[in-house]
Amino acid sequence: MSPTHYELLGLSPWCTELEIRRRYRDLSKRYHPDTTLLPAQEAVEQFRLINEAYAVLSNPERRQSYDRAIHFSRFSYQSRSLTASNLSQIDDDGLPSQRPLSGGELFVLLLIGGTFILCLILVILLAWLRGDRLMPDLPVALTPPYYAVATLRNAPLQSPLACD
Predict the structure, then answer these.
(1) Strand residue runs (E) in the chain
(2) In terms of CATH architecture, what is 5-74?
(3) pLDDT tens digits along 99-135
(4) Letter string b/e over residues 64-103, b meaning 16 or more CB atoms within 10 A of that residue's CB
(5) Is the dihedral of CA 20, 21, 22, 24 positive or negative?
(6) Per-domain residue ranges for the chain?
(7) Which pTM was predicted?
């Protein structure tokens, strides 16, 4: 029996489109007739098989019909647990991963946070030394009861009783 397209590319049937694309790129570079050290006929045959597998697996409709043909069901998939071996296989492709931050990354985050806080303190200190108001007065519309209280507060003080 001939290997499945997944076996030919060295992938699991649950692989993502990104994994298929990466694996195809790697194998096509390795087995391309112009760049490989294999005999020409063998390289051409291997390259043809890889291209055929990629053509089927990269197209969602063709992949779905191929999965039905090999009797594979995505519904029987059990979630993979995250282990150290799974995390070590994740490539850095710019997508978020579920790996812990390294010591260097934690140090850089701490350094950036500390720098931000020190800059904020420096700006506040320089503004205070220049005499700038840190909290500007907010314009508040006064309603009549508050306006009356404000008017009375600004009125000059008079003694209520005159003593003789």
Answers:
(1) none
(2) Orthogonal Bundle (1.10)
(3) 788 888 999 999 999 999 999 999 999 988 988 776 6
(4) eebbeeeebeeeeeeeeeeeeeeeeeeeeeeeeeeeeeee
(5) positive
(6) 5-74, 103-135
(7) 0.45
